[in-house]
Amino acid sequence: MNTKSIKDDLLILNSAEKKVSEIQEFISQAKKLIAENKYIDIEETKNRCLKEAALLPIIGNYTPSFSSLEANSNNLTLNLNQQLDAVQSILEEYSSRIYTKRMEITPSLLLDILEEIEDLLARLQDIYLGKNLPSSQKVEDSSLPKLKEKVSDIEICFGKGISQPQRWTDLNRHLAFGEIHDLDDIVYHDWPSVRQGILRSFFRLRDIASLDGESISELRSLVKHVANRSRFSWKELSSEEFERLIFQVISSPDITYENAEFLMRTNAPDCGRDISVWRVYQDSFSGSIRHRVIIQCKHWPDRSLSVRDISYLKDQLQLWEPPRVDVLIIATTGCFSADTVRFMEKHNQSPSALRIEYWPIEKIRKIVDSRPYLLEKFKV
Q: 0.85 cut: is pTM over it?
């Protein structure tokens, strides 16, 4: 894939994220009206969501389907609220696929940009720094506008889920002023910090500080090694390793889950283990609210979960009650068929107290990518 093609794809991803944010904001406003018992035009709200959703581009052969909104709501506001919850869940899945696609196509482009920027900075440093020139003198060299262009190219790579690195604003401010003292800050402070942030966010490299002196060619080799290692690692995981990986994720200190434990299911057809955990919410009026969650892990990288699979997993919850199970999470290295997603959405719109959540591989990968210690521990 050439540079222009990657940039075009990134612009599409950025546009998709912007559209998702607009739909999410519209849903939030609609749900606020519902919560405040104010008038809301149900059909107009549904049609607006469907119209906006139709503008979302296909990401990795995936197009979000909001077919549940097309069903007859009987003009019940409560049903609309449930349908909007389902739309939000689908948008989360869509956003996860955007993130996965971004992380797939961006590294090769970034390596080219990093290499060009460091060549430009080396040239400017050689001409202007250490020459006893006035610090307020303007940098008059064709490399400066090229440097600004390459930094702008980096900005295209950032998405909603990827924070700009430290000193990013400083880098752009110094580029805009373009005096020798600004170049000094760029070379010795701004760029080293931005470079570290990019490596940390996009390349899944373990010890960023130790890579400051690495050349781009050396980084290319290292990144290629990491990419090759992780390309097949999800399939190489055993079912038990996948279960332990999910257990480690919910046991992370930055996750609001408590008291995670494995539940042995000796009578399970796949000899798998469920995970029991308490999800904790903080409410300013009620204090801590705890929901009991059962996570069922399915290491099925080559198949999708069917409606029958979900029905069976839901029925198994009686093995672990009491206390009541509030949330069933199904985590898989595979995917969920469209019929299965619709089945779960329909269930979540029913009077049942149980909520079903689904974690496909894209969502799990995004969570794991943000925790480098898991990448090293499980080699994923």
A: no
